[in-house]
User: What shape does this take?
Amino acid sequence: MFVLYRGRYPYRSFASLEEVPEGQLVYYFPEEDHPVPVIRAGDRLLYPEPSGVYRYWVKYEEPRDFTVPRARGDALVVFYDPQEPSFGLEVWLGETLVAREVLHQGPLALEAFKAVFTGRRSHEYGGSFGVHRG
Assistant: This one.
């Protein structure tokens, strides 16, 4: 079972993964008293950090210069915060956040999340993120 909370209280429950809204922080209950925070991306579950933010890390052996966001670090991170919602990039050096750039907020953040983490383009689910018509 999956449960969506509003504040500290259960708001809505879902019996199967297909019913869970994409890009929202919900709690999966593999056992009755063991909630696990997850974010649905297509047919996958992503496991956010305790803060609720999901981060996808690309680590490098040596520090390098990044242009977006402009910083020097050894990891480039794509992040999605379903509570804001916000989507963007971070540069880390070791365990220190060096720079953060929010690329999208609100509905566009959700569209960017879906495009990046499900592999579907916006027009496949009715959005407008990244659609170029010429």
